[in-house]
Amino acid sequence: MILGSKLRTVRRSQGKTMQEIASAAGLSVGFVSQVERGIAVPSISSLRKLAAALEQPVGNFLEVSSESSQLTRSSERLPFTLGQNALTYERLSHSFGGSKLTALLIHEPPGHRTEPVSHEGEELFFVIKGEITVEVDEERVILRTGDSYHFDSTRTHCTWNHRTEVATLLWCGTMDVFGSSEIESPHQIPEKMARSSRVSPLYHVRMSTNFQEDKT
Amino acid sequence: MILGSKLRTVRRSQGKTMQEIASAAGLSVGFVSQVERGIAVPSISSLRKLAAALEQPVGNFLEVSSESSQLTRSSERLPFTLGQNALTYERLSHSFGGSKLTALLIHEPPGHRTEPVSHEGEELFFVIKGEITVEVDEERVILRTGDSYHFDSTRTHCTWNHRTEVATLLWCGTMDVFGSSEIESPHQIPEKMARSSRVSPLYHVRMSTNFQEDKT
DNA sequence: TTGAGATTTTAGTAATATTAAAATTCTGAG
DNA sequence: CTCAGAATTTTAATATTACTAAAATCTCAA
Question: Comparing C-alpha atoms, which of A78, A110, A195, A158 is closest to residue B55?
């Protein structure tokens, strides 16, 4: 039972006893023991209490993890182009069961501008090279090389490159952009993303129906 | 009741009837109706079935979102040094209610090596400059500039800088490293982190009891 | 207005979520 | 190695409720 063993792993990594957690959650120690060993299953309400006692989002205990890792080589990543105003991105992260982290390397051309949008999750921009302007809830911030900006994506936000050179950004966020499908071909990814409304840097682009692989 | 109304919102946005969802989930229509209106609460097992029928991660129906954002300037970030073998890091992310994303800019000196460790969450390394070796479950990979590596942190992992120059890494992960305390002073952070066993790049370091702010 | 499909309501009961307390195991100091 | 206290597991229960089937009501297009 994944749920119980995850609870135990987290609790132990925090160095807390079952008694401490049970007490903080308002549940009995015996019950916590049975839950951790998969003998009992908590109600959603009790699980929320346990998650709160462990200071974790509930989802951490419910998603299925599998063992996986993914290396992406700079030389092997396929750049993708979206729209006519050639935003280019490379995927750094990949999906495995329960994974929440998505990371992209984005090349944002001069004058490129995204539409204001809001959606679930949180995200962070780190500027590797160049400058962009970020607007969150109508508050504007200029990000220069080395700067970062982390915000809750439920707030209305957009970005643009106000300079004359391409900006290179590392974007990471906590929404699953690509689904659990593995990369089979470049064309599979853009189609999936065309339907996605959750990808902050990509959703903003008024996408044409044709996507092409960037041959550079 | 957030859970039920989220289920209804998603179902309607997919244009599906309750009967379709109930059938796909193997539950009765009457129960789905009661759950959506908050009259009944599903077990975790039933919620998984409903989430699967709606093709959503379970966590979507359980998490609460909140609002905040944080800018970090390259010129204003305080570098922190851990241990004698001077690993230096800068914090890019910050904490707000429900946030899961942590990001650090790490300067890993030549010969620096971390202890093998496993813990909750997932993480991704992106090499901005230099090279490091990453070992996950005894599988070794060399990461060069521009490469990235994303893996589940429950797998035993460690890293080291096998070169003669400092490596600059962007590390992001889904565990809350710093807690919900805001940055008050540089010394507050290192003490908090000294107690934390959850910070993959930092936990590995055999930390001395004295932490100093890097004056460079 | 009618009728088919969708949703809500009702009345139940088998299952189980969760407990208190006893038993067992673990841990660390001496 | 021993032992006491802390931590965890086990046991036996029961109040609660998760979920059902079927009837009633609502909705909407023709």
Answer: A195
The reply to whether B133 and B36 lie within a common domain is no
pLDDT in tens, B39-65: 899 999 999 999 888 887 787 788 654
Confidence check on the interface: ipTM exceeds 0.85, yes or no: no
Distance between CA B120 and CA A9 in Å, rounded? 7
Total domains in the fold of chain A = 2
**Are A55 and B3 in contact (CB < 8 Å)?**
no
Rg (CA), chain A: 21
**Measured from the CB, is A17 under 7 Å from any atom of strand D?**
yes
Q: What are phi and psi of A64, to 5 degrees?
A: -90, 125
Q: How far is CA B137 from the centre of its chain?
A: 19
Q: Assess whether A26 (CB) lies less than 7 A from strand C.
A: yes
Give residue B9's domain range.
2-61
CB contact under 8 A, A154 and B67: yes
Given the structure tokens 């689904």, which residue do they identify? A179
How many CB atoms lie under 10 A from the CB of residue B173?
27
